[in-house]
Amino acid sequence: MSAAHDRTVGVLLTSQAFRGLGYGVAAVQLGALIGSDGLSATEVGLVLAAILAGSFLTSLALARWGDRLGRRRAYAGLYAALLLCGLVIATGLELPRFDRHIRACDYAAA
User: Fold this and answer.
1) Alpha helix (H) ranges present in the chain?
2) Which residues contact 44 (CB under 8 A, 6 or more apart)?
3) pTM of full prediction above 0.70
């Protein structure tokens, strides 16, 4: 194997390690944050499961189309999206709360 190949493998493994670390830290913090916001344990679990499913689908998309776009561009796009999400969480930006609308419908139906 060439030195360039070894470096590329090292970069890919390092980026995956940082992605895994970021997901793990964010999952714990996000779970605590939305749990303290009044969601039940089941609702918190559903939110975290949706995030995990999104991560899985993103990984599949990168595997499928990453070579066409170029892996560096694909990962740069992924990390830009993750950075944007992290900034939204870190700044406490108020986003629309769709669960409030769902709960209002539940109460209206009862």
Assistant:
1) 3-36, 41-69, 71-91, 98-109
2) 31, 34, 35
3) no
